[in-house]
Amino acid sequence: MSASERSGGASVGPDAWEYDVLAAAESGGYGLKGIAFEIFHGEGLVDAFAIPHARFKSLLARIELLYSVENPYHCALHAADVLSASHCLRKALPDVFSAVETLALYLAALGHDAGHFRLNNAFLKNSKHTLAKKYPESVLENFHLGLVFELLEDPDVGIVPFLPATDLARFRALLSALILATDMSKHMGLFKELQRWVGENDGARDGDGDDDDDSRAGAPYDTLNDAIEASDAANDLLRVPHKNGHGGGDIPQISGARDGSNENDHEPWVRPALERASEKDRLVVMQLLLKCADLANVVRPLEIADAWGKRIMEEFYQQGEKELSLGLPLTTFPNRRNFDYVFARHQLGFLVNVVRPLFEVFTRLTSFDAREAVLASAAENGDAWTRRESQNQPGRKEAAGRPSTAPTAISKSPSSSSSTSTSRGAFGALARQNTITMMRAFKQSNLTMLTANAMEMTGLDVALDEVRSTHWSPYDRVRVVNADP
Fold it and tell me: What integer pLDDT is reported at residue 217 of this predicted model?
C-alpha cells in the first residue's frame, strides 16, 4: 500500500506539500521505513546503485531505530517528514541533481537528527555534557552524523560498498556538509550565501542589496540583543500575505513571466544558473533545501503545522524543566502556563523571523506552483496564529466573557465581514503591535535566549506550581498541554 493510500485515503503522496506523515502513521502505522522506501525506490536510487532491496529496507529499519519513541518531535516520523519535504522541494527544482547528490540529500534528511535525546546544543554546552567536550561546535549535528556513517558502513546493512569508487568521496563530503548545515547557528551564514547567489543570477538582490539587513535573513538570534535589534524588520514581516485575502496583502509576485504552457515552469534564469553553478554554490543550494525541509512543518497546511508545533513545544517544556531543576540558564520554555497564547506567539515569531524569509528566497528556485503552495500556507498559518495570540493573551479570557459595547481589533462587525481590507488592516496593526510589545518585554527579561525556536518565551511566569508531566507516543497526532485552570 502506498503512502497516499495510507494517509487517510488522501490522494496526495510524499511529493506533495500537503502530505501528512502523521496521518499516514495513524492510518496504519506507515512510518519511516515505508515512506522512505517508496521515495528512494520511486526515484530509482536503490536500483541506480544496484543495492539489494532487502538490504536497503534493513538499513531504513535500522535508521528508524536510532530515533527514540519517547521523543514527541525529534522522532522517526520527523525524519520521514523532512525526507518527504526534501523530496517535494527537489522535485520542484529543475532536474539538475545527479543520483549521488540526490542519494546524499535524502539520506541526510533521514539521518539529520539520528539519536536525538530531546536536548539542544545550548543545554549540552551549559551542562558541560560529554558530547560538548567531544564536539566543540555543532555538538548534536556531529553526533547525528557519526551515527549515520556507522550505519552506512555497517557490514550487514551498509550501502557504502555499493557506491562507485569515483562517487564515494563526493558522497561522504555531501552527507557531512548537509547534516552539519542543519545546525541553526549556521543558518545566517548559509542564508546570506543563498541570497548572494540568487542575487548574482537573477540580476536583482533581495532586500534591496542591503548586506547588513540580517533581520530579513531569518537569523536564529543566538542572543537577546540580536532579537531586539531585529524588531523593526519583524514588524514589517508580520504583514503576512494570503491569497484568499485574510492576512494583509497578496502572495509576493514572482519576477519573470510564465510562458503560459506549463504550470510547473520556473523563472527563466533558474535552470541555467543551477547548471553552471560552482560546486560550492551547488552545495549551498542543497544545504538550504535541507534546511527548508527541516523547518517545513511551520509552513505546511495549518493542521499539520499545529500538530508538529505542539510536539516541539512539549520538548521545549521538558528541557526547560531540566534547566530549572539543574540551575542552568534558561534557553527554552520553563512551564506550560498560558499554552494557547505562548504557542501562537512562538509559532508566529518563528515563522516571521526565520522560516518565511528562508522560503521566500529559496522558492525563487522552485516551480511557480510549489512557491504558491508554500507561501499560501505561510500566510494562512500566520493569520491563524496572529488571531490566537490576541484571543488568548493572558488577562483577556475573563474580559472575553463579559458583554462588549464595541468590537475589538479582531472582531468582525456586520460591515467588516464584507470588507476584507478592514480586517487585513486590523490584523496587520495588531500583529505589529504584538511584536513591539514583545520586543519591549525582551529588554526587561533576564532569560537567556540561545535557541532559535525559543525566541518568544518572554513574559512567562517561571513558577512550576502547575506543571504537569506528559507521556508521549510518536504516533500521537496532537497533544495539547494546557496547565491553565
Answer: 40
CA-to-CA separations, 63 to 31, 75, 79, in angstroms, rounded: 12, 11, 9
Within 10 A of 130 (CB to CB), how many other CB atoms are there? 10
- Between CA 106 and CA 112 the distance in angstroms is 10
Cα 389 to Cα 346, 383, 385, 430, distances in angstroms: 9, 10, 6, 10
Tell me the one-letter amino acid at 82: V
- pTM over cut 0.70: yes
Average predicted confidence (pLDDT) for the chain: 76
Q: Calculate the alpha carbon distances from 327 to 61, 233, 319, 321 in Å.
A: 39, 34, 12, 10
* Confidence (pLDDT) at 11: 60
Separation between Cα atoms, residue 265 and residue 92, nearest integer Å: 9
Please give the Cα distance from 413 to 316 (Å, whole number): 38
Buried b (16+ CB within 10 A) or exposed e, 305-325: bbbbbbbbbbbbbbbbbbbbe
Return all residues near 244 (Cβ < 8 A) that are at least 6 apart.
380
Options 1.10.1300.10, 3.20.20.80, 3.40.980.10, 1.20.1250.20; CATH of 1-118+138-182: 1.10.1300.10
Cα(132)–Cα(129) distance, integer angstroms: 5
> Domain map of the chain by residue range?
1-118+138-182, 186-395+418-485
For residue 20, give the amino acid letter.
D
* 403 contact partners, CB below 8 Å, separation of at least 6: none
- Total length of the chain: 485
Which amino acid is it at 427? F
Q: Which residues contact 362 (CB under 8 A, 6 or more apart)?
A: 89, 194, 288, 289, 292
Cell digits of residue 239: 504583514
Find where cell 513571466 sits.
257
Task: Give the residue-averaged pLDDT of 430-439.
Answer: 45
Give Cα separations from 202 to 207, 254, 261, 274, 361 (angstroms).
Answer: 14, 12, 22, 12, 12
- What are the pLDDT digits (tens) for 445-458? 323 233 333 333 33
Q: How far apart (Å, rounded) are the C-alpha atoms in residues 275 and 282?
A: 9
Please tell me the distance from the alpha carbon of residue 151 to that of residue 175, in angstroms, as a whole number.
Answer: 13
Q: Can you state the percent helix, strand and coil of the chain, rounding each to 5?
A: 60, 0, 40
Supply the Cα-derived Rg of the chain in whole angstroms. Answer: 22
Amino acid present at 18: E
Please name which of 381, 395, 385 lies closest in space to residue 461, comparing C-alpha atoms: 395
DSSP state of 254: P
DSSP string, 71-82: -SSSSHHHHHHH
